[in-house]
Amino acid sequence: MAVSDQDDFSDVSDSELLEGLEDDEYRERRIQELQSDIKRRDMEAEFVSRGGYKEYTSEKEVMDVALKQVKVIVHFFHPRFKRCEIMDTHLELLAYQHPGTKFLKVNVENVPFLVEKLKIKVLPCVITFRQGVARERLVGFQDLGQSDQFATKTLEWKLFQMGAITNVDQDGERVDSDYDD
Length: 181
What we know:
- This protein has two domains: about 10-45; about 50-175, Glutaredoxin (3-Layer(aba) Sandwich), CATH 3.40.30.
- Helix content is about 45%, strand content about 20%.
- It has helices at about 15-20, 25-50, 60-70, 80-95, 110-115, 150-160, and strands spanning about 55, 70-75, 100-105, 125-130, 135-140, 165-170, 175.
- It is elongated.
- This is Thioredoxin domain-containing protein.
- It holds the Pfam family Thioredoxin.
């Protein structure tokens, strides 16, 4: 019995399933699928442990991360703002490419003290932290071309200029920005 991806096993007896497992081609394909799944999960676990892009819900959590990590980017957002969704999409992509920086997102409704303390008035607001100190911020899309269709590379370049991320040159070498405070 040959087994294909579209097979529905609900009408197949146990003996027929066991017979299908004896098919070398099926077994090899299944092993490759499982190995691929394990590799993907390992990459996701490494992504989260080294950097990641995670939503934090309390001021204490945000401050703990910002104080413990060398480079942190915090996206202050509101879930009903379209431009916050746009920023969120770009930051999530960049988080995968820059595991040396911790990327956070935080709903402004959950952190009123931080919003007041950091004087956040316009969303989206992205604040960079370096060794626990708030350094620079992106407010709205004013530094990204004032357009909702800005490129992820534009945001990446701006974050690099701010010293929040490390860039990679054409040879694959890591390049830090001139911002060394």
